[in-house]
Amino acid sequence: MNQTIPAIFFDRAEREADHDALLVKRSEKFEPVTWKALAQDVSRMVAVLKSLGVSPGDRVLHVSENRYEWIVTDLAIQTALAIHVPVHASLTGPQIIFQLVHSEARVVIISTSTQADKLSECSHSVPESTIFLSYDPCDQQIGDRPLKLVSNLRERLDHIHDASTCQQAFAQLAPDSLATILYTSGTTGQPKGVMLSHANLVSNTYGAIEGVQLGTGEVRINLLPFSHIFARTCDLYAWFAVGGILALAESPETAVADCAMIRPTVMNAVPYFYDKLRQALIALQLDTTPGSLRQLLGGNIQVCCSGGAALPNHIFDFFHKQGVLLFEGYGLSETSPVIAVSSPAEHRRGSVGRPIPDVEVRVAEDGEFLTRGPHVMVGYYKNPEATKEALQDGWFATGDLGYVDHDGFLYITGRKKELLVTAGGKNIAPTMLETLLSEDPLIFQAMIIGNAKNYLTALIVPDLQALQTHLSTVDRSLNLDPAARGNDIFPTAGLYAFFEERIAQRLKSVSKHEQVRRFTLLDRPFTVETGELTPKMSLRRATIEEHFAAEILAMYSKSSSGGVDFNLQAE
Protein backbone atom coordinates (compact mmCIF):
# COMPACT_ATOMS: atom_id res chain seq x y z
CA MET A 1 0.00 0.00 0.00
CA ASN A 2 1.81 3.09 -1.29
CA GLN A 3 0.62 5.59 1.32
CA THR A 4 1.84 7.35 4.45
CA ILE A 5 -0.01 8.54 7.56
CA PRO A 6 0.23 12.29 6.68
CA ALA A 7 -0.99 11.60 3.13
CA ILE A 8 -4.11 9.86 4.42
CA PHE A 9 -4.78 12.64 6.91
CA PHE A 10 -4.40 15.57 4.51
CA ASP A 11 -6.48 13.78 1.89
CA ARG A 12 -9.31 13.41 4.41
CA ALA A 13 -8.90 17.03 5.56
CA GLU A 14 -9.08 18.31 1.99
CA ARG A 15 -12.16 16.25 1.06
CA GLU A 16 -14.12 17.05 4.24
CA ALA A 17 -12.62 20.46 5.11
CA ASP A 18 -15.71 22.04 6.64
CA HIS A 19 -17.07 18.91 8.33
CA ASP A 20 -16.57 18.29 12.05
CA ALA A 21 -13.60 16.04 12.74
CA LEU A 22 -13.03 16.13 16.51
CA LEU A 23 -14.94 16.77 19.70
CA VAL A 24 -12.68 18.30 22.36
CA LYS A 25 -13.76 19.05 25.93
CA ARG A 26 -13.26 22.69 26.85
CA SER A 27 -14.91 24.39 29.83
CA GLU A 28 -17.01 21.31 30.60
CA LYS A 29 -18.43 21.17 27.06
CA PHE A 30 -17.41 19.25 23.96
CA GLU A 31 -16.61 21.64 21.15
CA PRO A 32 -16.21 20.58 17.49
CA VAL A 33 -13.05 21.07 15.45
CA THR A 34 -13.30 20.91 11.66
CA TRP A 35 -10.91 18.99 9.43
CA LYS A 36 -9.73 22.30 7.93
CA ALA A 37 -8.93 23.79 11.34
CA LEU A 38 -7.08 20.65 12.40
CA ALA A 39 -5.02 20.62 9.18
CA GLN A 40 -4.09 24.27 9.69
CA ASP A 41 -2.93 23.57 13.24
CA VAL A 42 -0.85 20.64 12.01
CA SER A 43 0.76 22.91 9.40
CA ARG A 44 1.56 25.52 12.06
CA MET A 45 3.19 22.88 14.24
CA VAL A 46 5.28 21.70 11.28
CA ALA A 47 6.55 25.28 10.96
CA VAL A 48 7.43 25.30 14.67
CA LEU A 49 9.44 22.09 14.36
CA LYS A 50 11.29 23.32 11.29
CA SER A 51 12.10 26.63 13.01
CA LEU A 52 13.85 24.59 15.71
CA GLY A 53 15.99 22.84 13.12
CA VAL A 54 14.15 19.50 13.11
CA SER A 55 15.30 17.63 10.02
CA PRO A 56 14.20 14.42 8.31
CA GLY A 57 15.03 11.43 10.52
CA ASP A 58 15.38 13.44 13.74
CA ARG A 59 13.70 11.93 16.77
CA VAL A 60 11.15 14.04 18.66
CA LEU A 61 10.26 12.76 22.14
CA HIS A 62 6.69 13.51 23.24
CA VAL A 63 5.53 13.19 26.87
CA SER A 64 1.85 14.00 27.17
CA GLU A 65 -1.52 12.69 28.22
CA ASN A 66 -4.20 12.61 25.53
CA ARG A 67 -5.24 16.09 24.41
CA TYR A 68 -5.89 17.95 21.18
CA GLU A 69 -2.23 18.95 20.92
CA TRP A 70 -1.16 15.28 20.99
CA ILE A 71 -2.91 14.66 17.68
CA VAL A 72 -1.55 17.86 16.12
CA THR A 73 2.00 17.05 17.23
CA ASP A 74 1.90 13.43 16.06
CA LEU A 75 0.84 14.43 12.56
CA ALA A 76 3.25 17.39 12.46
CA ILE A 77 6.29 15.31 13.43
CA GLN A 78 5.56 12.81 10.68
CA THR A 79 4.76 15.54 8.14
CA ALA A 80 8.13 17.11 8.93
CA LEU A 81 9.70 13.74 8.02
CA ALA A 82 10.88 13.29 11.61
CA ILE A 83 10.33 10.28 13.88
CA HIS A 84 7.80 10.43 16.71
CA VAL A 85 8.87 8.89 20.05
CA PRO A 86 5.73 8.99 22.25
CA VAL A 87 6.21 8.37 25.96
CA HIS A 88 3.58 7.21 28.46
CA ALA A 89 2.70 10.19 30.65
CA SER A 90 2.68 7.94 33.73
CA LEU A 91 6.40 7.12 33.55
CA THR A 92 8.90 8.39 36.08
CA GLY A 93 11.65 10.89 35.33
CA PRO A 94 14.44 8.28 35.04
CA GLN A 95 12.25 6.14 32.76
CA ILE A 96 11.62 9.13 30.48
CA ILE A 97 15.30 10.06 30.49
CA PHE A 98 16.22 6.52 29.44
CA GLN A 99 14.04 6.83 26.34
CA LEU A 100 15.28 10.36 25.65
CA VAL A 101 18.94 9.35 25.76
CA HIS A 102 18.50 6.02 23.98
CA SER A 103 16.48 7.54 21.13
CA GLU A 104 18.89 10.50 20.85
CA ALA A 105 15.93 12.85 20.62
CA ARG A 106 16.71 16.32 19.30
CA VAL A 107 13.51 17.88 20.68
CA VAL A 108 11.40 16.98 23.72
CA ILE A 109 7.78 18.16 23.94
CA ILE A 110 6.01 17.85 27.28
CA SER A 111 2.47 18.71 28.32
CA THR A 112 2.45 20.14 31.84
CA SER A 113 4.53 21.24 34.81
CA THR A 114 4.04 17.76 36.28
CA GLN A 115 6.16 16.32 33.51
CA ALA A 116 8.65 19.19 33.86
CA ASP A 117 9.05 18.37 37.57
CA LYS A 118 9.94 14.78 36.74
CA LEU A 119 12.57 15.81 34.21
CA SER A 120 14.09 18.63 36.26
CA GLU A 121 14.79 16.18 39.09
CA CYS A 122 17.18 14.21 36.87
CA SER A 123 18.32 16.93 34.47
CA HIS A 124 21.98 16.00 34.93
CA SER A 125 21.40 13.09 32.55
CA VAL A 126 19.95 15.23 29.75
CA PRO A 127 22.18 15.95 26.73
CA GLU A 128 23.06 19.66 26.47
CA SER A 129 21.84 19.91 22.86
CA THR A 130 18.28 18.82 23.65
CA ILE A 131 15.55 21.43 23.08
CA PHE A 132 12.53 21.40 25.43
CA LEU A 133 9.02 22.63 24.62
CA SER A 134 5.82 22.59 26.64
CA TYR A 135 2.12 22.98 25.90
CA ASP A 136 1.28 24.57 29.26
CA PRO A 137 3.34 27.32 30.94
CA CYS A 138 6.10 25.81 33.12
CA ASP A 139 8.34 27.72 35.51
CA GLN A 140 10.82 24.86 35.85
CA GLN A 141 14.10 24.56 34.02
CA ILE A 142 15.62 21.37 32.66
CA GLY A 143 19.18 21.85 33.76
CA ASP A 144 19.87 25.50 32.94
CA ARG A 145 17.35 25.61 30.08
CA PRO A 146 13.84 27.09 30.34
CA LEU A 147 11.03 25.38 28.48
CA LYS A 148 9.80 27.13 25.37
CA LEU A 149 6.02 27.49 25.15
CA VAL A 150 4.65 25.94 21.97
CA SER A 151 1.91 28.57 21.63
CA ASN A 152 4.48 31.40 21.72
CA LEU A 153 6.56 29.78 18.99
CA ARG A 154 3.44 29.16 16.93
CA GLU A 155 2.30 32.79 17.19
CA ARG A 156 5.64 34.01 15.84
CA LEU A 157 5.13 31.76 12.84
CA ASP A 158 1.38 32.26 12.52
CA HIS A 159 1.71 33.38 8.93
CA ILE A 160 3.04 29.92 8.01
CA HIS A 161 0.13 27.53 7.87
CA ASP A 162 -0.23 26.61 4.22
CA ALA A 163 -1.36 23.00 3.95
CA SER A 164 0.02 22.79 0.42
CA THR A 165 3.51 23.42 1.80
CA CYS A 166 3.05 20.45 4.12
CA GLN A 167 1.83 18.29 1.28
CA GLN A 168 4.97 19.12 -0.68
CA ALA A 169 7.08 18.26 2.36
CA PHE A 170 5.58 14.85 3.07
CA ALA A 171 5.57 14.01 -0.64
CA GLN A 172 9.20 13.06 0.05
CA LEU A 173 8.05 10.42 2.53
CA ALA A 174 8.26 6.85 1.34
CA PRO A 175 6.12 4.07 2.82
CA ASP A 176 9.27 2.44 4.19
CA SER A 177 10.27 5.65 6.00
CA LEU A 178 10.42 5.26 9.77
CA ALA A 179 7.37 6.88 11.41
CA THR A 180 7.77 6.13 15.09
CA ILE A 181 9.80 4.44 17.81
CA LEU A 182 7.72 2.96 20.63
CA TYR A 183 9.37 1.75 23.79
CA THR A 184 7.80 -1.44 25.07
CA SER A 185 6.76 -1.35 28.70
CA GLY A 186 8.08 -4.86 29.24
CA THR A 187 7.52 -7.04 32.29
CA THR A 188 11.27 -7.48 32.83
CA GLY A 189 14.44 -5.68 31.77
CA GLN A 190 14.95 -2.37 29.97
CA PRO A 191 12.39 -1.28 27.36
CA LYS A 192 13.17 -1.90 23.71
CA GLY A 193 12.49 0.68 21.00
CA VAL A 194 10.07 -0.77 18.45
CA MET A 195 10.61 0.81 15.02
CA LEU A 196 7.47 1.08 12.88
CA SER A 197 7.38 2.42 9.34
CA HIS A 198 4.56 4.21 7.55
CA ALA A 199 3.91 1.00 5.63
CA ASN A 200 3.50 -0.84 8.95
CA LEU A 201 1.00 1.68 10.29
CA VAL A 202 -0.98 2.19 7.10
CA SER A 203 -1.36 -1.50 6.32
CA ASN A 204 -2.40 -2.27 9.87
CA THR A 205 -4.89 0.60 10.01
CA TYR A 206 -6.71 -0.54 6.89
CA GLY A 207 -6.40 -4.22 7.83
CA ALA A 208 -7.97 -3.57 11.23
CA ILE A 209 -10.78 -1.54 9.66
CA GLU A 210 -11.56 -4.36 7.23
CA GLY A 211 -11.29 -6.97 9.96
CA VAL A 212 -13.69 -5.20 12.30
CA GLN A 213 -16.08 -4.44 9.42
CA LEU A 214 -17.32 -1.12 10.75
CA GLY A 215 -18.88 1.44 8.47
CA THR A 216 -18.20 5.13 7.95
CA GLY A 217 -19.75 7.93 9.97
CA GLU A 218 -19.06 6.41 13.39
CA VAL A 219 -18.65 8.51 16.52
CA ARG A 220 -15.62 7.10 18.31
CA ILE A 221 -14.75 7.92 21.89
CA ASN A 222 -11.08 7.73 22.79
CA LEU A 223 -10.23 6.56 26.32
CA LEU A 224 -6.84 4.91 25.90
CA PRO A 225 -3.53 6.80 25.77
CA PHE A 226 -2.30 7.56 22.26
CA SER A 227 1.19 6.69 23.47
CA HIS A 228 -0.01 3.07 23.23
CA ILE A 229 -0.13 1.74 19.69
CA PHE A 230 -3.61 0.21 20.25
CA ALA A 231 -5.26 3.63 20.60
CA ARG A 232 -2.99 5.24 18.04
CA THR A 233 -3.83 2.79 15.26
CA CYS A 234 -7.37 1.75 16.17
CA ASP A 235 -8.68 5.11 17.43
CA LEU A 236 -6.58 7.83 15.83
CA TYR A 237 -5.51 6.50 12.43
CA ALA A 238 -8.65 4.43 11.86
CA TRP A 239 -10.67 7.58 12.50
CA PHE A 240 -9.25 9.65 9.68
CA ALA A 241 -8.85 6.64 7.41
CA VAL A 242 -12.65 6.07 7.37
CA GLY A 243 -13.94 9.47 8.48
CA GLY A 244 -16.54 10.20 11.11
CA ILE A 245 -15.92 11.94 14.41
CA LEU A 246 -13.39 11.23 17.15
CA ALA A 247 -14.26 12.47 20.64
CA LEU A 248 -11.50 12.78 23.25
CA ALA A 249 -12.68 11.73 26.69
CA GLU A 250 -11.36 14.06 29.35
CA SER A 251 -10.02 11.06 31.28
CA PRO A 252 -10.94 7.42 31.95
CA GLU A 253 -12.51 8.58 35.23
CA THR A 254 -14.91 10.90 33.39
CA ALA A 255 -15.62 8.47 30.56
CA VAL A 256 -19.17 7.59 31.58
CA ALA A 257 -20.14 11.25 32.01
CA ASP A 258 -18.43 12.06 28.71
CA CYS A 259 -20.39 9.29 26.96
CA ALA A 260 -23.64 10.91 28.09
CA MET A 261 -22.65 14.07 26.19
CA ILE A 262 -20.94 12.44 23.20
CA ARG A 263 -23.32 9.48 22.62
CA PRO A 264 -20.59 7.39 20.89
CA THR A 265 -21.24 4.40 18.64
CA VAL A 266 -17.79 2.78 18.91
CA MET A 267 -15.38 2.33 21.81
CA ASN A 268 -11.96 0.72 22.27
CA ALA A 269 -10.84 -0.03 25.83
CA VAL A 270 -9.08 -2.56 28.06
CA PRO A 271 -10.89 -5.29 30.06
CA TYR A 272 -10.31 -3.36 33.30
CA PHE A 273 -12.53 -0.52 32.07
CA TYR A 274 -15.29 -2.82 30.86
CA ASP A 275 -15.29 -4.63 34.20
CA LYS A 276 -15.65 -1.30 35.99
CA LEU A 277 -18.81 -0.67 33.98
CA ARG A 278 -20.13 -4.07 35.02
CA GLN A 279 -19.33 -3.37 38.66
CA ALA A 280 -21.00 0.05 38.49
CA LEU A 281 -24.24 -1.49 37.27
CA ILE A 282 -24.06 -4.20 39.94
CA ALA A 283 -23.62 -1.52 42.62
CA LEU A 284 -26.67 0.30 41.23
CA GLN A 285 -28.59 -3.01 41.08
CA LEU A 286 -29.11 -2.44 37.36
CA ASP A 287 -26.99 -5.35 36.11
CA THR A 288 -30.06 -7.41 35.14
CA THR A 289 -32.03 -4.46 33.75
CA PRO A 290 -32.17 -4.68 29.94
CA GLY A 291 -30.56 -1.70 28.20
CA SER A 292 -28.89 -0.31 31.32
CA LEU A 293 -25.38 -0.79 29.93
CA ARG A 294 -26.16 0.93 26.64
CA GLN A 295 -27.78 3.79 28.53
CA LEU A 296 -24.70 4.07 30.77
CA LEU A 297 -22.61 4.55 27.61
CA GLY A 298 -24.79 7.28 26.15
CA GLY A 299 -27.54 5.29 24.46
CA ASN A 300 -26.02 4.86 20.98
CA ILE A 301 -23.16 2.44 21.58
CA GLN A 302 -23.06 -0.35 19.00
CA VAL A 303 -19.66 -1.98 19.29
CA CYS A 304 -17.00 -2.21 21.99
CA CYS A 305 -13.59 -3.70 21.24
CA SER A 306 -11.24 -5.00 23.93
CA GLY A 307 -7.46 -5.23 23.74
CA GLY A 308 -4.27 -4.89 25.76
CA ALA A 309 -5.01 -7.88 28.00
CA ALA A 310 -7.09 -11.05 28.00
CA LEU A 311 -10.84 -10.46 28.15
CA PRO A 312 -12.40 -12.65 30.87
CA ASN A 313 -15.41 -14.63 29.72
CA HIS A 314 -17.67 -13.26 32.45
CA ILE A 315 -17.20 -9.70 31.11
CA PHE A 316 -17.92 -10.90 27.56
CA ASP A 317 -21.05 -12.66 28.79
CA PHE A 318 -22.26 -9.63 30.74
CA PHE A 319 -22.02 -7.31 27.73
CA HIS A 320 -23.75 -9.74 25.41
CA LYS A 321 -26.59 -10.33 27.88
CA GLN A 322 -26.98 -6.56 27.93
CA GLY A 323 -27.19 -6.50 24.14
CA VAL A 324 -23.92 -4.60 23.64
CA LEU A 325 -21.45 -6.32 21.36
CA LEU A 326 -18.02 -6.68 23.00
CA PHE A 327 -15.34 -8.56 21.14
CA GLU A 328 -11.61 -9.04 21.47
CA GLY A 329 -8.61 -8.29 19.29
CA TYR A 330 -4.98 -9.32 19.59
CA GLY A 331 -1.65 -7.76 18.81
CA LEU A 332 1.61 -6.30 20.07
CA SER A 333 3.59 -3.10 19.68
CA GLU A 334 5.89 -4.99 17.30
CA THR A 335 2.95 -5.76 15.00
CA SER A 336 1.54 -2.22 14.69
CA PRO A 337 -0.40 -3.70 16.68
CA VAL A 338 -3.28 -5.77 15.25
CA ILE A 339 -2.70 -9.41 14.35
CA ALA A 340 -6.25 -10.71 14.73
CA VAL A 341 -9.63 -9.25 15.53
CA SER A 342 -13.23 -10.30 15.84
CA SER A 343 -16.09 -8.54 14.09
CA PRO A 344 -19.80 -7.97 14.71
CA ALA A 345 -20.57 -10.75 12.26
CA GLU A 346 -17.85 -13.20 13.33
CA HIS A 347 -16.81 -13.54 16.96
CA ARG A 348 -16.48 -16.32 19.49
CA ARG A 349 -16.37 -16.37 23.24
CA GLY A 350 -12.77 -16.68 24.44
CA SER A 351 -11.26 -16.06 21.00
CA VAL A 352 -9.27 -13.01 19.85
CA GLY A 353 -10.66 -13.44 16.35
CA ARG A 354 -9.17 -14.24 12.96
CA PRO A 355 -6.04 -12.73 11.40
CA ILE A 356 -6.73 -9.47 9.58
CA PRO A 357 -6.10 -9.22 5.80
CA ASP A 358 -2.48 -9.72 4.64
CA VAL A 359 -1.44 -11.06 8.05
CA GLU A 360 -0.17 -14.63 8.33
CA VAL A 361 -0.18 -16.60 11.57
CA ARG A 362 1.19 -20.04 12.28
CA VAL A 363 1.76 -22.03 15.45
CA ALA A 364 5.29 -23.25 16.18
CA GLU A 365 5.99 -26.71 17.53
CA ASP A 366 6.11 -25.38 21.09
CA GLY A 367 2.73 -23.66 20.70
CA GLU A 368 4.05 -20.12 20.15
CA PHE A 369 2.25 -17.87 17.66
CA LEU A 370 4.45 -16.65 14.80
CA THR A 371 3.27 -13.94 12.44
CA ARG A 372 4.44 -12.51 9.12
CA GLY A 373 3.24 -9.65 6.95
CA PRO A 374 3.38 -5.88 6.36
CA HIS A 375 2.43 -5.25 10.01
CA VAL A 376 5.68 -6.61 11.45
CA MET A 377 8.10 -3.99 12.77
CA VAL A 378 11.31 -2.90 11.08
CA GLY A 379 13.22 -3.98 14.19
CA TYR A 380 14.36 -2.81 17.62
CA TYR A 381 16.18 0.53 17.62
CA LYS A 382 19.93 0.13 18.19
CA ASN A 383 19.40 -3.49 19.25
CA PRO A 384 20.31 -5.86 16.41
CA GLU A 385 20.66 -8.83 18.76
CA ALA A 386 17.08 -8.55 20.01
CA THR A 387 15.87 -7.94 16.45
CA LYS A 388 17.60 -11.08 15.21
CA GLU A 389 16.13 -13.10 18.06
CA ALA A 390 12.57 -11.88 17.39
CA LEU A 391 12.62 -12.06 13.57
CA GLN A 392 13.43 -15.30 11.81
CA ASP A 393 12.98 -15.45 8.01
CA GLY A 394 10.42 -12.66 8.22
CA TRP A 395 8.41 -14.36 10.95
CA PHE A 396 8.00 -12.50 14.24
CA ALA A 397 7.92 -14.62 17.38
CA THR A 398 5.12 -13.14 19.49
CA GLY A 399 5.97 -14.92 22.74
CA ASP A 400 2.29 -15.82 23.09
CA LEU A 401 1.11 -19.41 23.31
CA GLY A 402 -2.16 -20.63 21.87
CA TYR A 403 -3.96 -22.52 19.13
CA VAL A 404 -6.09 -21.96 16.03
CA ASP A 405 -9.43 -23.74 15.73
CA HIS A 406 -10.77 -25.38 12.57
CA ASP A 407 -12.45 -22.11 11.50
CA GLY A 408 -9.28 -20.05 11.86
CA PHE A 409 -10.10 -18.36 15.19
CA LEU A 410 -7.11 -17.72 17.47
CA TYR A 411 -7.10 -18.55 21.18
CA ILE A 412 -4.38 -17.31 23.56
CA THR A 413 -3.42 -19.62 26.43
CA GLY A 414 -0.39 -17.85 27.92
CA ARG A 415 3.00 -16.22 27.49
CA LYS A 416 5.99 -18.34 26.55
CA LYS A 417 8.45 -16.42 28.74
CA GLU A 418 6.05 -16.57 31.66
CA LEU A 419 5.91 -20.35 31.63
CA LEU A 420 6.54 -21.81 35.05
CA VAL A 421 8.47 -25.04 35.41
CA THR A 422 7.67 -26.81 38.66
CA ALA A 423 10.15 -28.81 40.66
CA GLY A 424 8.51 -31.86 39.11
CA GLY A 425 9.31 -30.61 35.60
CA LYS A 426 5.73 -29.65 34.70
CA ASN A 427 5.29 -26.66 32.37
CA ILE A 428 2.58 -24.30 33.59
CA ALA A 429 1.04 -21.36 31.68
CA PRO A 430 0.12 -19.04 34.57
CA THR A 431 -1.82 -16.60 32.40
CA MET A 432 -4.37 -19.25 31.51
CA LEU A 433 -4.95 -20.09 35.19
CA GLU A 434 -5.09 -16.40 36.15
CA THR A 435 -7.68 -15.78 33.46
CA LEU A 436 -9.79 -18.66 34.77
CA LEU A 437 -9.57 -17.31 38.31
CA SER A 438 -10.37 -13.71 37.37
CA GLU A 439 -13.50 -14.89 35.58
CA ASP A 440 -14.96 -15.33 39.04
CA PRO A 441 -16.83 -12.04 39.65
CA LEU A 442 -15.47 -11.91 43.21
CA ILE A 443 -11.81 -12.17 42.13
CA PHE A 444 -10.40 -8.89 40.84
CA GLN A 445 -6.79 -10.00 40.22
CA ALA A 446 -4.78 -13.18 40.57
CA MET A 447 -1.14 -14.17 40.17
CA ILE A 448 0.13 -17.73 40.08
CA ILE A 449 3.50 -18.66 41.68
CA GLY A 450 5.32 -21.97 41.44
CA ASN A 451 8.52 -21.80 39.42
CA ALA A 452 10.89 -24.51 40.74
CA LYS A 453 8.39 -25.27 43.50
CA ASN A 454 6.61 -28.50 44.37
CA TYR A 455 3.17 -26.98 43.96
CA LEU A 456 1.37 -23.85 42.77
CA THR A 457 0.25 -21.01 44.96
CA ALA A 458 -1.68 -17.83 44.19
CA LEU A 459 -1.98 -14.23 45.32
CA ILE A 460 -5.66 -13.34 45.14
CA VAL A 461 -7.10 -9.81 45.18
CA PRO A 462 -10.82 -9.98 45.96
CA ASP A 463 -13.22 -7.58 44.28
CA LEU A 464 -14.27 -5.81 47.46
CA GLN A 465 -17.36 -4.15 46.03
CA ALA A 466 -18.67 -7.36 44.48
CA LEU A 467 -17.76 -9.30 47.64
CA GLN A 468 -19.63 -6.82 49.77
CA THR A 469 -22.74 -7.16 47.63
CA HIS A 470 -22.49 -10.95 47.56
CA LEU A 471 -22.11 -11.34 51.30
CA SER A 472 -24.95 -8.96 52.09
CA THR A 473 -27.48 -10.18 49.52
CA VAL A 474 -26.56 -13.69 48.33
CA ASP A 475 -24.55 -15.63 50.87
CA ARG A 476 -25.07 -14.65 54.52
CA SER A 477 -23.55 -17.88 55.82
CA LEU A 478 -20.22 -16.21 56.66
CA ASN A 479 -21.95 -13.66 58.87
CA LEU A 480 -19.46 -11.00 57.73
CA ASP A 481 -19.99 -7.31 57.22
CA PRO A 482 -17.16 -6.09 54.98
CA ALA A 483 -18.35 -2.49 55.20
CA ALA A 484 -18.05 -2.50 58.96
CA ARG A 485 -14.99 -4.69 59.36
CA GLY A 486 -12.95 -3.35 56.41
CA ASN A 487 -9.70 -5.25 55.90
CA ASP A 488 -10.31 -7.29 59.05
CA ILE A 489 -12.30 -9.72 56.91
CA PHE A 490 -9.13 -11.03 55.27
CA PRO A 491 -7.62 -13.11 58.08
CA THR A 492 -10.87 -14.94 58.81
CA ALA A 493 -10.89 -18.68 58.25
CA GLY A 494 -14.45 -18.50 56.99
CA LEU A 495 -13.53 -16.18 54.15
CA TYR A 496 -10.59 -18.36 53.14
CA ALA A 497 -12.83 -21.42 53.05
CA PHE A 498 -15.30 -19.41 50.98
CA PHE A 499 -12.63 -18.52 48.38
CA GLU A 500 -11.16 -22.02 48.50
CA GLU A 501 -14.41 -23.37 47.16
CA ARG A 502 -14.63 -20.73 44.43
CA ILE A 503 -11.01 -21.27 43.33
CA ALA A 504 -11.53 -25.01 43.15
CA GLN A 505 -14.63 -24.45 41.04
CA ARG A 506 -12.79 -22.16 38.61
CA LEU A 507 -9.92 -24.67 38.20
CA LYS A 508 -11.95 -27.85 38.04
CA SER A 509 -11.24 -28.28 34.32
CA VAL A 510 -7.43 -28.15 34.54
CA SER A 511 -4.98 -30.90 35.31
CA LYS A 512 -3.79 -31.98 38.74
CA HIS A 513 -0.43 -30.20 38.51
CA GLU A 514 -2.19 -26.95 37.46
CA GLN A 515 -4.25 -26.80 40.66
CA VAL A 516 -3.54 -24.12 43.26
CA ARG A 517 -2.60 -25.72 46.55
CA ARG A 518 -2.34 -22.60 48.72
CA PHE A 519 -3.40 -19.00 48.26
CA THR A 520 -3.25 -15.69 50.10
CA LEU A 521 -5.93 -12.99 50.00
CA LEU A 522 -4.51 -9.49 49.56
CA ASP A 523 -6.11 -6.33 50.88
CA ARG A 524 -4.98 -4.12 48.00
CA PRO A 525 -4.78 -4.51 44.22
CA PHE A 526 -1.71 -4.63 41.98
CA THR A 527 -1.29 -1.17 40.41
CA VAL A 528 0.78 0.74 37.87
CA GLU A 529 1.77 3.24 40.60
CA THR A 530 3.40 0.51 42.71
CA GLY A 531 5.24 -0.81 39.64
CA GLU A 532 3.33 -4.10 39.83
CA LEU A 533 1.50 -3.55 36.52
CA THR A 534 2.74 -2.27 33.20
CA PRO A 535 0.82 0.63 31.62
CA LYS A 536 -1.02 -2.08 29.62
CA MET A 537 -2.10 -3.68 32.91
CA SER A 538 0.14 -6.73 32.49
CA LEU A 539 1.56 -8.26 35.66
CA ARG A 540 5.16 -7.40 36.49
CA ARG A 541 5.75 -10.72 38.17
CA ALA A 542 9.20 -10.09 39.58
CA THR A 543 8.06 -6.85 41.23
CA ILE A 544 4.96 -8.47 42.70
CA GLU A 545 7.01 -11.36 44.04
CA GLU A 546 9.39 -8.87 45.64
CA HIS A 547 6.61 -6.82 47.22
CA PHE A 548 4.81 -9.89 48.59
CA ALA A 549 7.86 -12.00 49.39
CA ALA A 550 6.74 -12.65 52.95
CA GLU A 551 3.31 -13.85 51.88
CA ILE A 552 4.80 -16.12 49.22
CA LEU A 553 7.37 -17.53 51.64
CA ALA A 554 4.59 -18.30 54.11
CA MET A 555 2.69 -20.31 51.47
CA TYR A 556 5.74 -22.54 50.96
CA SER A 557 6.52 -22.90 54.67
CA LYS A 558 5.54 -26.18 56.29
CA SER A 559 4.65 -24.39 59.50
CA SER A 560 2.67 -21.71 57.74
CA SER A 561 -0.70 -20.73 59.09
CA GLY A 562 -1.31 -18.36 56.20
CA GLY A 563 -3.13 -19.24 53.04
CA VAL A 564 -5.09 -22.41 52.49
CA ASP A 565 -3.77 -25.88 51.80
CA PHE A 566 -6.01 -27.74 49.38
CA ASN A 567 -4.38 -31.03 50.46
CA LEU A 568 -3.29 -31.86 46.94
CA GLN A 569 -0.31 -34.13 46.44
CA ALA A 570 2.81 -32.36 45.18
CA GLU A 571 4.03 -33.48 41.79
Structure description:
This protein is of the alpha/beta class and 571 residues long. It folds into 3 domains: 5-15 and 33-173, 3-Layer(aba) Sandwich (Rossmann fold); 203-416, Rossmann fold; 419-555, 2-Layer Sandwich (GMP Synthetase, Chain A, domain 3), CATH 3.30.300. Helices cover 34% and strands 23% of the residues. It is built from 20 helices and 29 strands. Helix 3 links the parallel strand 3 (59-63) and strand 4. Helix 1 (5-15) crosses helix 2 (35-51) and helix 4 (93-103) packs across helix 5. The chain is globular. Mean pLDDT is 89; it is low at 481-487 and 565-571.
CATH class of the largest domain: Alpha Beta
Give the N-terminus to C-terminus distance in angstroms: 54 Å
The amount of helix comes to 25-40%
CATH-assigned homologous superfamily of the largest domain = ANL, N-terminal domain
In percent, how much strand structure appears in the residues? 15-25%
Q: Mean of residue pLDDT?
A: 89
Shape: globular
- SS class: alpha/beta
Q: Give the strand line-up of the largest sheet.
A: 2-1-13-12-14-15-16-17-18
Features:
571 residues; alpha/beta; Rossmann fold; GMP Synthetase, Chain A, domain 3; 20 helices; globular; disordered C terminus
Short description:
About 35% of the residues lie in helices and about 25% in strands.
How does the SSE layout of this entry go?
Layout: H1 5-15, E1 20-26, E2 29-34, H2 35-51, E3 59-63, H3 68-79, E4 83-87, H4 93-103, E5 107-110, H5 113-120, E6 131-134, E7 141-142, E8 145-146, E9 148-149, H6 150-156, H7 163-170, E10 178-183, E11 193-197, H8 198-212, E12 219-222, H9 229-242, E13 245-248, H10 255-262, E14 266-269, H11 271-283, H12 292-296, E15 303-306, H13 313-321, E16 325-331, E17 338-341, E18 354-355, E19 360-363, E20 368-372, E21 379-380, H14 384-390, E22 391-392, E23 395-404, E24 410-415, E25 420-421, E26 427-428, H15 430-438, E27 443-449, E28 456-462, H16 464-473, H17 482-485, H18 493-506, E29 516-521, H19 541-547, H20 549-555
Parallel strand pairs: 1-13, 3-4, 3-5, 5-6, 6-9, 12-13, 12-14, 14-15, 15-16, 28-29
Antiparallel strand pairs: 1-2, 7-8, 10-11, 11-21, 16-17, 17-18, 19-20, 20-23, 22-23, 23-24, 25-26, 27-28
